[in-house]
């Protein structure tokens, strides 16, 4: 975003919360009693470190692409229990909308946010990717984190993301072209096979419970379908490979949760090499993780108007 647009929108309003001080044991115990959340496999997550994960890896990173303040509307589509929305509520003054198709999950997220004291900072809406309950360009920034693969490579879903954002779309989803996808069976080339064959392959290696019939996007097809938007992040959804490295160590809030102390040596070598490709690096990494910007916004910055 060019300087004139940035000045028009105002300066960043961001502060880094000390989540371990903010989230007391009493709050954690109350959260873990919330109906629906309590019965699921995320019930034992470390709440403070989960919020820190979303703040460090998503909230802080977007500041390199856009100012965040009370004039900015941020939307998380497929919000789950709303951790990303809560991180934005804690760390910024932005207007926040959390959209989730599962009403029970959304209601649980709202209750959790109320316990944390930030429920009124978030507009909670029931809805899905293929029909997002937003007006055209209602959002400044739209997040869609690890959701797109669950709607069977839907063109409508991608079109909806483009429709509702006036500026940025932050999107992550597994890369079809990568030979192994951690989000699925983790069996080499399994996701390249027809679904019936995938089921047989998964069963042979006792991975049937991880074969979810997800369909994945290639970097070429995804960028082509994001009509009116261009990728602007050089490394995943970060402004640089160094910004990505700065997020280690971190807590990974999936399943029972786990702590990732550092990037593995082979992966670090591979990433350090391919990161030099800039935008082309998206073609050779496991995750299609992008910041897309609306083309007319990008053109405005280039023209200096």
Summed up, what is this model?
By secondary structure, this protein is α/β, with parallel strands linked by helices.
Question: Can you tell me about this structure?
Answer:
The protein has 305 residues and is an alpha/beta fold. It has two domains: 263 residues, Rossmann fold (3-Layer(aba) Sandwich), CATH 3.40.50; 32 residues, no CATH class. Helices cover 35% and strands 16% of the residues. It contains twelve helices and nine strands. The strands form two sheets. The chain has a seven-stranded mixed sheet. Strands 7-8 form a two-stranded antiparallel sheet. Helix 4 crosses helix 5. The longest helix is centred in the first third of the chain and has 16 residues. The chain is globular and about 45 Å long. It starts with a helix and ends with a helix.
Structure keywords:
single chain; 305 residues; alpha/beta; Rossmann fold; 7-stranded mixed sheet; two-stranded antiparallel sheet; 9 strands
SS field, number of helical segments:
12
Question: What percentage of amino acids are in beta strands?
Answer: 15-25%
Pick out the low-confidence regions.
1-9
Question: Rg, please?
Answer: 19 Å
Order of helices and strands: HHHHEHEHEEHEHHEHEEHEH
Q: At the third CATH level, what is the topology name of the largest domain?
A: Rossmann fold
